[in-house]
From TrEMBL:
Native species: Nocardioides baekrokdamisoli
Name of one Pfam family that matches: GHMP_kinases_N
Any one GO biological process: threonine biosynthetic process
Gene: thrB
EC number: 2.7.1.39
Protein name according to UniProt: Homoserine kinase
Keywords, comma-separated and alphabetical: Amino-acid biosynthesis, ATP-binding, Cytoplasm, Kinase, Nucleotide-binding, Threonine biosynthesis, Transferase
InterPro entries linked: GHMP_kinase_C_dom, GHMP_kinase_C_sf, GHMP_kinase_N_dom, GHMP_knse_ATP-bd_CS, Homoserine_kinase, Ribosomal_Su5_D2-typ_SF, Ribsml_uS5_D2-typ_fold_subgr
Location within or outside the cell: Cytoplasm
Cytoplasm among keywords: yes
Highest taxon of source: Bacteria
Role this protein plays: Catalyzes the ATP-dependent phosphorylation of L-homoserine to L-homoserine phosphate.
Enzyme class: transferase
Pathway(s) annotated for this protein in UniProt: Amino-acid biosynthesis; L-threonine biosynthesis; L-threonine from L-aspartate: step 4/5
One of the record's GO molecular function terms: ATP binding
Length: 298
């Protein structure tokens, strides 16, 4: 019997993808976490969900955490008699903060933690690849697995590297009251862009690696995007209006992932930024998460 007796707990961070010019590639883990608990029981499937999505997520095998756990158990060659799962969801859904990646990575890490030598049988790199396959793209799952700032993509296989983040940096996220589905936001993107835009965007994406790593004074310039944010304006006009207003004041603000959350980088004082939260929105000042997904017994 190689399954762990008793409860395991996983914490998994929210993530912000794109970071301006790094469309479908750059990602950052944030200090906002879902906490998931699981244990093997005699039979059946029991699911309790509190917080974000508690009113809407299914309580059966189609639950994304459960589906991800099943995939990891299949890879690990285990088939638990029954499962009890508890999700304390803090990451808001459909806001561009990586809630589905958190569910996938969290589910894989839960299953791995429930298997005695799970970490040897499913390494972090293998967990990342499996998560990216389930999600279909790697830009949120990479920072959710590894923490920090990641550069990821997909050619013959999914790849991800972690790059340094200047320790002075943190972020404020501005979360609107209603979400936008990623599918809708992607539907607004053009099939082609002008070569001049692609060239300008390449330069900013390269600059972003330096700006986040050691040159935060370059963040405003580096976060300028040419490939997606403006095209998505019709789906999230208030978010783009906030990005425009913050950027006009020299603040490095971007749309987080496919939106509609707005993220602004902070070097010193976040209070002035928090004061700019639009009515009815929620904002948080968050540290950069450097740990990624974490599991513990109990
Ligand atoms: N990069 C994706 C997009 C969202 O902007 O559509 C996160 O995977």
């Amino acid at each position: 019997m190689s399954l762990v007796a008793g409860r395991v707990t996983v914490t998994v961070p929210a993530t912000s993808a794109n970071l301006g010019p790094g469309f479908d590639s750059l990602g950052l883990a944030l200090g906002l976490h879902d906490t998931l608990h699981a244990e093997v029981i005699a039979g059946g499937l029991e699911i309790e969900v509190t917080g974000a999505g508690a009113d809407s997520v299914p309580r059966d095998e189609s639950h994304l955490v459960v589906r991800s756990m099943r995939q990891a158990f299949a890879v690990l060659g285990e088939n638990p008699s029954g499962l009890r799962l508890t999700c304390e969801n803090v990451i808001p859904h459909a806001r561009g903060l990586g809630s589905s990646s958190a569910a996938i990575v969290g589910g894989l890490a839960l299953a791995r933690a429930l298997v005695r030598d799970g970490r040897e049988r499913l390494t972090d790199d293998e967990l990342f690849e499996l998560a990216a396959e389930i999600e279909g793209h790697p830009d949120n799952v990479a920072p959710a697995v590894y923490g920090g700032f990641t550069i990821s993509g997909n050619d013959d296989a999914f790849y991800a590297v972690t790059a340094p983040v200047d320790e002075r940096l943190s972020a404020v996220v501005f979360i609107p009251p209603t979400g936008v589905e990623t599918k809708v936001a992607r539907g607004l993107l053009p099939a082609e862009v002008p070569h001049a835009d692609a060239a300008a965007n390449s330069g900013r994406a390269a600059l972003m690696v330096a700006a986040l790593g050691f040159a935060p004074d370059q963040l405003h310039r580096a976060t300028r995007d040419y490939l997606h944010q403006d095209y998505r304006r019709p789906a999230m006009p208030e978010s783009l209006a906030l990005v425009d207003a913050l950027r006009a004041d020299g603040i490095a603000a971007i749309v987080s992932g496919a939106g509609p959350t707005v993220l602004a980088f902070v070097v010193e004082n976040a209070d002035e930024l928090l004061a700019r939260t639009p009515a009815g929105w929620v904002s948080h000042h968050l540290r950069i998460d450097t740990a990624g997904v974490r599991a513990s017994l109990a």
